[in-house]
Write a structure and sequence with these properties.
Number of helices: 2
Largest sheet: 5 strands, mixed
Radius of gyration: 13 Å
Structural class: alpha+beta
Low-confidence stretches: none
Shape: globular
Mean pLDDT: 85
Distance between the termini: 34 Å
Strand content: 25-35%
Length: 110
C-alpha cells in the first residue's frame, strides 16, 4: 500500500492529456516540490476528470478518475492550493461536496 501523509489540491485546472512528467512539472511549479508520501490533485476545466500524482518516496504514481455524469466539486475562488483531510478526499473522488466535511466526518454548513 502507498502511504499518503498529505493531500494537496491545485485550484487551477490542468490539461489532463498531460503525462507523468508534465504533471510532475506542474506539481513543482504550483507546490514548490513533490514531497515524499504526498498526493497532489488536479482537475480539467470541466471538472469531470481528476488526476492524482503521488510521490511514494522512490518514484511517482499518476492515477486518473472520470465521472460519468456530474462534476467534481472544485473550488473556483480560492488561492492556488488547498490541503485536504482524508475524509474530504474520500468525498471529493466520489463527486460529493467535500468542503462540508469537517473533523471526524462531521458535515457542516458553508
Amino acid at each position: 500500500m502507498i502511504r499518503i501523509e498529505g493531500l494537496w489540491l491545485a485550484v487551477e485546472p490542468l490539461d489532463l492529456r498531460a503525462g507523468t512528467e508534465a504533471a510532475l512539472a506542474r506539481v513543482v511549479a504550483v507546490f514548490g516540490a513533490a514531497r515524499p508520501h504526498h498526493a497532489y490533485l488536479f482537475t480539467n476545466r470541466r471538472a469531470n476528470r481528476l488526476k492524482v500524482l503521488v510521490h511514494d518516496g522512490i518514484g511517482v504514481w499518476l492515477a486518473a478518475r472520470r465521472l460519468n455524469s456530474g462534476k467534481f466539486v472544485w473550488p473556483k475562488d480560492s488561492l492556488g492550493t488547498l490541503t485536504l483531510s482524508r475524509a474530504q478526499f474520500d468525498a471529493l473522488v466520489l463527486g460529493l461536496p467535500w468542503q462540508r466535511i469537517g473533523e471526524a466526518g462531521v458535515i457542516t454548513v458553508l
